[in-house]
């Protein structure tokens, strides 16, 4: 079995979808969390100058989505044929826009602007996104085919991040998405990881 | 082979690379190019209100990279092993990070701000990016392994899009990247396609 070494900061951030996938499949890996002070020395050794990176089979991968897809393949969670895999890919990529807006809001220092961004997300971006995604999930609670895929896991992770910033029952009236969340939480590996994972601010 | 119908606007934009992938793989596809005025009617019929979309035997896929990966797999350009596939993915993802910065200056309406952003992009952002990518490409002019992949085609596609917006050839001095570009343009399917695309 190849050894996997994941390196990131001590945070869920961009590495958490990867950690969730390792957990879902019960694949052992080294979960390296570096301090901010150690980053400048490591940065030039990474392919593109940022984290997370995954060292596997003598190679170093970067780009969290590329890494997550690689792990999902090893975990058998990528979709059963090319078309299902494409569906999973589109679901994952489709979440980038709202994630970008969430990050911009979090990083905004001007309090008035921050409130505007928050309102825009909670009243426009988020409801529109969830409406679209309700139609893209099936009634059994899966985005690609009829079994758990990394698209479901990634969606779950995003919603957890959203809930932390915007408390409320966002999935009310969205039964497909409620089922997606339940399916992911019911995975024993994920349930165990969520209970035992290190605490971090974000 | 499944039937493919790609829908986008007429310009290169986000679908340029997808058309190149079909061409490189010698794969037949319906190349639908809509006018701006047709978009409002089509938009609600798309999965996420965006194009390009690819219809494959009735299923609609959106998101440029999801489509790109599907065509690349069909064309044998997605990497030979799962690790190679991940390396192709990471190169493509890095290119899309750069594309976000391009879109930022492209859509800037204030002309003065736009020129400032283009200057910053051409003098700082792009050179730094190309220095990184020069190291990621090998001396045979490939990003992954020793054969053409979607990573090489995507790189060429973005450079082709940029060339009208920059005063000089950004690949000057980048030996590996210049070879990547040469490898892509000398692919027979791509050469024929580019001849057609640029001859009007």
UniProtKB/TrEMBL annotation, chain A:
Its Enzyme Commission number? Answer: 2.5.1.18
Output one GO MF annotation: glutathione transferase activity
InterPro entries linked to this entry: Glutathione-S-Trfase_C-like (IPR010987), Glutathione-S-Trfase_C_sf (IPR036282), Glutathione_S-Trfase (IPR040079), Glutathione_S-Trfase_N (IPR004045), GST_C (IPR004046), GST_superfamily (IPR050213), Thioredoxin-like_sf (IPR036249)
Which Gene3D superfamilies does the UniProt entry name for this protein? 1.20.1050.10, Glutaredoxin
Which stretches make up the GST N-terminal domain? 2-79
Q: Which reaction does it catalyse?
A: RX + glutathione = an S-substituted glutathione + a halide anion + H(+)
For this UniProt entry, which segments traverse the membrane?
none
Q: Name one GO biological process term.
A: glutathione metabolic process
* Residue ranges of every copy of the GST C-terminal domain listed in the record: 81-202
Matches recorded under PROSITE patterns: GST_CTER, GST_NTER
Name the UniProt key words of this record, in alphabetical order.
Transferase
- This protein is called glutathione transferase
Species source reads Branchiostoma lanceolatum (Common lancelet)
Organism taxonomic ancestry: Eukaryota, Metazoa, Chordata, Cephalochordata, Leptocardii
